[in-house]
Design goal:
heterodimer; A: 125 residues; alpha+beta; Alpha-Beta Plaits; B: 462 residues; mainly alpha; 21 helices; disordered N terminus
Amino acid sequence: MAEASVVKETCIQAACFFLPFFESGEWRRKGKAPWKVLKKEPGITPDALRELAAYTEKRISRSADCMAALLSIHDDWQVTVKKDGVWMETETMIYEDILPRLQAAEITEDDYVLYSEYTRKWGML
Amino acid sequence: MSTNNTKTNGGGAKGLILKEDWWAVWIGLATVIVGLLIWKFGGSLSAITVSFKGYTNFADMPATVAPILPGLLLLWLILAIVLSIATGIMGRNVLHFVLGFTVLYIMAVIVQILGAWSWAKTFNIETPVMALIIGLIIGNLVKIPQWFEAGMRTEFYVKTGIVLFGATLPFTLIIQAGPVAFFQASVVAISTFVVIYFASTKLFKLEKPFAATMGAGGSICGVSASIAIGSAVNAKKDHVSISISMVVIWATIMVFLLPVICRALGLSDGASGALIGTSEFADAAGVAAASQFGEGASRTFVLMKVVGRDIFVGIWALIMAIISVTIWERHKVTKANAAAAASGELPAVTSQKPSAGVIWERFPKFVVGFFIASLIVTLVVLATGNPGGSIDKQVLDPVKNLRGWAFALTFLCIGLTTRFKDLAAVGWKPFAAFTCGVVVNVALGLLFSVFILNDYWTQVGM
């Protein structure tokens, strides 16, 4: 873990990283993701499918890179695979310590979605 | 690793058996339903309840307590079994829980015995205050062992108590008084949130997610709101920790201060409960403050806090998540990512667009149990006509007694878990910003409860 905080902890943080299969962060900010566009296209073509295949390969490959980076940063992850991506979650390292290392590993904010879930420390009012 | 409230575990159907909120609902509703079934077959839940008779001379105490010892043992056994099952399924250490719970139960018995002494009543040191004071002294002077900590489940006890409270409130009263409570609570909560948020961001230049987390803690439902909003806006851990500390510090002060204000102003029980429900920061602390008055104060407190404020948290979490994603984070992503990388700050992160599902995800589930308990009892009363008031005597009185036990455990836990040295180092800026909200909160609470709606809450509390 990084340097000890001066703040006494009154909560537990679960840092949850979602590594998507179908769309990167840029598509959550701009327009529709390629998968969503394709589903709504009236006349689908083989080339459009090939483009999607190339995009999907790149996207999942980036998720794999992100997963590898997270595993190299910390070894206590609960990994869950769902139909639209991989969830990696830990309660033993806070996201404030993880993000700079992801950045150093050239993982961009488009490659993951961060959720932080807090729970009160046991017995806390 | 415990992941009860996180994204990959404990969500969906699993949450029904893994989350404390839902266990409070199951235990509370099961108690009410079992009570009604026993009544239907001519019995009463009172067979497992224990009450403490008042006494004047301390020398008379042993003779008062001796006859109820078997009942105390039976109640301990039932509570220990039920709560241990819940604890085990939630993935906690059952042995530690049983040991901790047993010590807590013995303390609750002692506190209630002392609270029944007329000498204590003379000085207004009844069970809630005595439990708080004893808990605070022990918690702050003695190192509490880990196994004892396992029994201190403040929120679990208070949520179960609130579900039981629902059974004793007619659903018609909730429907009638709920909108008034919601209106009063909303005006005060929104004002308090705005004051804390703008004091934090404009006066003290604190980060917006931090300000929102503190604002929610000071306005909606204390620690639960800080956690819900802190999660919704991806606040930093230190900031959520500080927000929780702020809530605990002020909630503990208010447990003692608000009853003093109510007595000084000569408020009725109903108005006192409404003020405490509006201006206290945490459910458990509010129950402790309202319990220092009569049943009417507890009733208006629950209406104000649970119906008026707690149900707000899901909607507030959704609003803050939308603001976080559409304004704060987009701003960070589009303008500051490169600069942040150069300066060594945290990179901006992308969030999913929040959906309305957040409302349910963050909704305090025990409130559902509160409403259902009220609805069940109200329907049974309407269907049967409550012959000879037998439901009151054989079902609701025992439920009130068990609720009292849940709250007695809560009061002790508040004291035992509020360790001031663990709350230190919050910094003067967050403290000042939060305190601005406290001042506005109490002032508006007084305005509504003492002047604008005094007669209304007095009547509801009668």
